[in-house]
Specification:
The chain is α/β, with parallel strands linked by helices and 248 residues long. It has helices at residues 20-28, 40-43, 61-78, 96-105, 118-126, 156-161, 174-183, 234-241, and strands spanning 5-9, 31-34, 50-53, 82-86, 110-113, 139-143, 164-168, 191-196, 204-209, 225-230. The strands form 2 sheets. It has a 5-stranded parallel sheet with strand order 3-2-4-1-5, sandwiched between helices. Strands 6-7-10-8-9 form a 5-stranded mixed sheet, with helices on one face. Helix 3 crosses helix 4. Bound molecules: S-adenosyl-L-homocysteine. Residues 12-13, 37, 87-89, 92-94, 117-118, 121-122, 168-169, 195, 197-200, 224-226 line the site of S-adenosyl-L-homocysteine.
Length: 248
């Protein structure tokens, strides 16, 4: 039987935040197709492999995804050990379903190796639990990105109902997101934490209130960033205001 294609979570970027299983599979790979969010240091685990950069631009996501699926199937036909290395965890906003379906339809086995998702790396950097006892009993992983045929309001009501929300792919639309949430009745005082480059030495954090979130759109952020919302971030906000903690 041939080897399965492995969809591996690279974690948030640092070379030592991939799983041992993921690293071992990289060390044995013949071909590695990797994302824009994967850092060059991680590719040092697989100098023997043919490397294919399939980093896609947001604007053309759907066409690009079909192309990636095709490249993945082509690689699986050509090489014995194929790795698809994806930022964070493959199963969270990672288009894993499309790639798994494409591989299986083409007759290839596929297996997933989990990775540390950005929400967890950002929480570790901030030192704030997503579920601080007595403050938050649930966490929502969400995006405000609306796909074709979906209603624009679908993403708002779950956020209003959640104790803690982690918003992926939201920083560029920070202004529109803040306006929509405020318009739907979320208190302007809701604590928000913006974390850029979570899990990396270049990590930066900005605690603020929801009312200040629209300003984020004007910032020049270099790396990927995530928005964390909820009362659990009240503590870092107060500490920052009191000058007890330094950020950015
Ligand atoms: N599968 C990935 C998410 C891909 S969607 C995961 O599990 O993490 C891409 C979004 O993830 C980015 O827009 C950003 O919001 C977030 N992201 C990914 N890596 C990040 C990092 N190191 N720091 C902060 N946010 C990150």
């Amino acid at each position: 039987m041939s080897n399965p294609v492995h969809l591996i979570g690279a974690g948030p970027g640092a070379a030592d935040l991939i799983t041992v299983r993921g690293m071992r599979l990289l060390q044995q790979a013949d071909c590695v197709l990797y994302d824009a969010l994967v850092q060059p240091e991680m590719l040092a685990y697989c100098p023997q492999a043919v490397l294919i950069d399939v980093g896609k631009r947001c604007a053309k996501a759907s066409t690009a995804q079909r192309f990636i699926n095709k490249m993945l199937v082509d690689a699986a036909s050509k090489y014995a050990r194929v790795v698809r290395l994806k930022g964070g965890d493959p199963m969270l906003f990672g288009r894993a379903t499309e790639e798994l379906v494409a591989l299986r339809e083409a007759g290839f086995e596929a297996e997933v190796v989990p990775g540390i998702t950005a929400a967890l790396a950002a929480s570790a950097d901030a030192g704030v639990s997503l579920t601080s006892r007595g403050v938050a009993r649930n966490v929502l992983f969400a995006t405000a990105r609306v796909g074709e045929g979906e209603s624009a309001s679908d993403w708002i009501s779950p956020i209003l109902a959640a104790d803690t929300t982690v918003l992926y792919m939201g920083v560029r639309q920070a202004e529109a997101i803040a306006k929509a949430l405020l318009g739907a009745g979320m208190p302007a005082s809701t604590p928000v934490l913006v974390v850029e480059n979570a899990g990396l030495p270049a990590c930066r954090q900005w605690p603020m209130r929801l009312a200040q979130l629209p300003d984020v759109g004007d910032w020049q952020l270099d790396g990927p960033a995530i928005l964390l919302l909820g009362q659990v971030y009240g503590e870092v906000l107060r500490a920052a205001q009191d000058g007890l903690r330094q950020f950015a």
